[in-house]
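Quick one: structure tokens for this chain, please?
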Amino acid sequence: MPSDTERELLTVAGREVSISNPRKVLFPQRGYTKLDLARYYLAVADGALRGAGGRPTVLVRYPDGIGGEFFYQKRAPRARPPWIEVVALRFPSGRSAEEVVPRDEATLAWMANLACLELHPHPVRADDLDHPDELRVDLDPVPGVAWTQIREVARVVHATLDDFGLVGWPKSSGSRGIHVYVRIERRWTFDQVRRAALALAREVERRAPELATSKWWKEERHGVFLDYNQNAKDRTIASAYSVRPTPDARVSAPLSWDEIDVCAPEDFTLETMPSRFAETGDRHAPIDRHPCSLASVIELSARQEREGLADAPWPPHYRKQSGEPARVQPSRRRTPATFAEGSGGPPQLQRRRKHPLVEIGRAQRKEDALAGFERWKTRHPDAAAHLAPADVLVDAMRGRFHTWTRIRVNLQHVPAGLRPDQEALDPDEVQPVERKGR
């Protein structure tokens, strides 16, 4: 059994980095340890720093391994070496924090010692926090969507970017989706970049309406969702070479466009990526040599607005935006009731059930929420038999430091006579108390 006092001293970039408890297992199924994580990031350091280097970065930490609690740490730990660079960010909430800015291999090793699996950089450089240099196209499949369909949507994205003079750099997300980065000139604000991403999402949806969607609300989605809100200020996604919390330790792998048709997410892991990197290098190595203008996509957005497509919903916790539609789930919207002539009195609001949703449970751990859903299916087998994979809405509710899980079910495919009523939540855990990063 590893000792809590055991340490491994690494000499990296002229600095000494101590890996505490180096044999601590982070991936139980494969046996990968904290020291394995540090060595992985050193093996791919050039690529990892191309993705996250010089950017304020959120630490996503798994101190007890992928089976334990994890948390997002925006604030750089107070106890840190003097050579760790930080920069102060101000968030839409009004809060501010000093975040880590990785610059070299030593910082990556130091982050690995914190059991930081995923690197979540902001799309800005530390020397200009107001103008993103990266537009991010996030292809997020709804449950049940096959990898082949994600590939098809990626091809549509590629063609759309080409048509608007943008150079896309694809990578596997390390989970189920694909990310496409576009390096852009630092001329536009966060709001402008987000609006450009929304315009691209809508254009891809127009070209492939059966495969892709730009609809924000989960109950309205189908196929592959293009998450334009990943470009809102303070939103981050796992960068290139990030290790993801999957049993086989998959990583987010930079790809060429040709590779998308012949690869699968499970091809790229903590074990396999170092040899690929040594043999082929970083597929995104030229990305900084191709900054693009968003002018053509900004014009597309203006044209869409003239045609009636105004802004789309923003994420929770953002202030209400000018021109934004009602930030209410379609299944919870209320509309004036219809009264017979002469009934008197003002109309009252009634709920419009566009989608018949029931909430199943809320839990701090995703596994506990899914267990509650299994109990619900046992109680309602006839209704469960009619559910499509996309009808099960598993929501990762992100707080300041942690996520918790909510599960809802869309009963749209269940015959009206078989639809269960809303029941008491199972489980019914309150949102966990947020702890400051440790």
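Residues 357-418 form one domain.
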